[in-house]
Amino acid sequence: MKQSLLKKVILTSVLSAALVTQVSAAKEKKYIIATASTGGTYYPVGVGIATIASLKLAKKYKMTFSAITSAGSGENVDMIDKGEVDFAILQGLFGSMAWQGKDKYEGKPRKNLRSVSMLWQNVEQFVVYNDIAKTGNIMDMKHMYGKKFSIGKRNSGTRVSGQTVLSALGIDYNKMDLQFLGYGPSATALQDRKIEGMNIPSGPPTSAVTNAYATIGADKIQHLEFSDADVKKIQTSYPVWTRYVIAKDTYPGQKADIHTVAQPNLLVVTKDTPDETVYLLTKTMYENLPFLNTVHKATKVMDIKKAISGLPMPLHPGAAKYYKEQGIDIPDRLIAK
Fold first, then answer.
1. Residue 238, Cα to own-chain centre: how many angstroms?
2. How far apart are CA 41 and CA 33, in angstroms?
3. Residues of the chain with pLDDT under 70
């Protein structure tokens, strides 16, 4: 593993670290989960999964888990390909592209990927200054032409999902002065008026968006909304997005519901990962949802009944075994051949 990657590995809690010291180094199996930048939802949820898995599995099964930051879905696929990480959280769109061999994966489908679980929905959040939002609809992004807009890190799912959404609606993002920033830096740049808007697809409430509303004020910035016609156009391009409503009061000063769109996020692994490892991780996640719910509100929508919803690739046999034990009927398309 590269030294730069090693520096990114984090111990997910002091308690789990204490447990790790009890495990024989010679027999210990260490697994790494790739997430995204610290200002979004992937990172805290990934840390939560790694923490509870280490707490529950280190002593008896000699398995420990760590979460690392990354540029997001794009880099996560690359790292899992290179064997630098074992698990990764991906956007449904990116997972679908990688599995099918579309877009940046044209002609090179990642058939080594396997689904573990749908986690929560990734909500598109286009936040801009009011002088950009002439109508409050996503088509106002055309007023961003020539202006600085943060589309996400270059090798991130944030960038790809944002560009895919805009392209589906006939909005030319190449006419914008694109900035490639992570979630936290985007919020800071928006606050300093170094950019006029940002794209933060994540499970609400998202810390970067919360910080932006708290520091700038809901009277100066807003989310752009999507009409039903907008949703249909996006679905025609990639049928992974659905209507999503961010309830009022989710963010500081937000007085009304926000009508946007969302796609599923999922946890993936390689087909070569031992069945027992994936089985135990899946079982541990769902038997400890109350713990994950304390890590981030986005996980409150996690439900064993929704675990296989919207998955773009077959389940890993270890995950499938657990779901079958829970009485979940697995469709043929999700059974690994």
1. 17
2. 14
3. 1-26
Does 136 lie in the same domain as 259? yes
Q: Give the C-alpha separation, 191 to 189, whole Å.
A: 5
Helix axes 275-287, 317-325, angle to 10 degrees: 40
Residue type, 163: Q
C-alpha 62/C-alpha 29 separation (Å) is 6
Domain count, the chain: 2
**Cβ contact 297:262 at 8 Å:** no
CB distance 272 to 278 below 8 Å? no
| Final residue belonging to a domain, choices 222, 242, 263 | 263
Relative orientation angle of helices 207-216 and 183-191, to the nearest 10 degrees: 10
Q: How far is residue 46's CA from residue 329's CA, in Å, rounded to a whole number?
A: 27
Which DSSP state fits 316?
P
Structure tokens at 76: 């996560």
Spatial CB neighbours of 82, under 8 Å, sequence gap ≥ 6: none
Contact 135, 227 (CB under 8 A): no
pTM for this model (two decimals): 0.75
Bridge partners (DSSP) of residue 258 are 246
Which domain range does residue 86 map to? 3-121+265-334
Tokens of 194: 């170094």
* Claim to verify: residue 24 and residue 94 sit in the same structural domain: yes
Helix (H/G/I), strand (E/B), else coil: 119: strand
Dist. CA 152–CA 172, nearest whole Å: 16
From 235, 263, 291, give the residue that closes a domain: 263
What DSSP state is assigned to residue 61? H
Return the C-alpha torsion angle 195, 201, 202, 208, nearest 10: 0
- Residue 134 sits in a domain of what CATH number? 3.40.190.10
157 and 244 both lie in a single domain: yes
What values do phi and psi take at 172, rounded to 5? -85, 95
Residues 76, 33 contacting (CB under 8 angstroms) = no
Both tokens of residue 144?
A: 């961003």
Kindly state whether residues 269 and 256 are assigned to the same domain.
no
